[in-house]
Specification:
169 residues; mainly beta; Glucose Permease (Domain IIA); 3-stranded antiparallel sheet; sugar transport; PTS system glucose-specific EIIA component; kinase; phosphotransferase system; Dup_hybrid_motif
Length: 169
Amino acid sequence: MGFINQCKQWFDNTPQQTQTIDIYSPVSGEIVSIEQVPDIVFAEKIVGDGLAITPHGSTIHAPVDGTIGKIFETNHAFSIVTKEGVELFIHFGVGTVELQGTGFSRLVEQGAEVHIGDPILQFDLNFIQEQVTSTVTPVVIANMDAIQGLSKKKGSVTAKQDILFSVTI
């Protein structure tokens, strides 16, 4: 590299362009901090950072426009990736994997292109509440290394309508 190019590289302080992406609530309910999820993997942010929701209703919707990355065989959890590369992981409840899919119905398949509000999974809330430790549903960013900032909301949320959190990439 020549001296002039090296100098240009040293002094090129062009700010990186940031972008904010709104993550909508995939289910209606009450927001719970991720640290209060009764599962250490989520509470200690091992999977990623985000929020959780104590759900109402019977459907989990796409929180962003993106591609379904993985839907677990038991239909209790899935990932979705935005075109900007943000990877979200939505996990219904604690102990739900042990239900082996009972109480859940898949509405889309892996690889499907979805838009905010599209139904992804249906669930029988009453049945599941009787069977598991908790129905608190974490919504986390699985690739936090790609995130510059995270703005979390509080209170109640309505699926498809309210922003749960915003990320800056």
